């Protein structure tokens, strides 16, 4: 078990999400950065879809009530165990009573904590991903308790690590594909999309990222149609909205672009004021 001494800014349990329930209006959810989460799980020997803790901007303080192994990947948040600094992208042995905490955010925006066997929180519709109205909690809470596998043998010399390319944290390139309504755009609008830099607004979260700059929009409105994580909508005002993992399942704005998984991973590590540009996948 893990006791949550402090919850941090926004930390939640996520796996790869709920697939096959969108026709009921259930969002996919799941980890924002699949790449970082998969690396964390690989380090502790989990299947890549195992549930991890997604930590946004500032980290929690966690006390481990039993032995386990952990790995932290993604954003650099200066983690420590019992006050001793540890590094990302390494598998570390944790003993009963150890306390994991986080410091200042240095790069990226979201990091991932994997534990041996994955987090064992409640599974709903085939996923442990936290989402309001679907699971009892939408994020971890102070003084809460998180179930993990019990009885993991600790190897004092277990310090395996991986060399991980985290340069995508700093990249402004967001990889995209044409969306269903892309062909309705004029050449001028297309050029604007691919030659402009866009700034992430303060309206950004697990549901979607809004961009400050606009693209003139004279497109006809469409019927409400399916959307998925990574769909880029162009609103009547010209504002662009990039849907993320907790997005709704349908929308009524033209779907002009679609982020690839790589594009979503990169965007997930950005925050307010960061600039991006769209790059069409070759």
From TrEMBL:
SMART domains in the record: AHS2
Molecular function terms from GO: ATP binding; hydrolase activity; transferase activity
Residue ranges annotated for the Carboxyltransferase domain, each copy included: 23-282
Keyword annotations from UniProtKB, A to Z: ATP-binding, Hydrolase, Nucleotide-binding, Transferase
Statement: the UniProt record of this protein carries the keyword Repressor: no
Keyword ATP-binding among UniProt keywords: yes
PANTHER family: 5-OXOPROLINASE SUBUNIT C
Descriptive protein name: Biotin-dependent carboxyltransferase
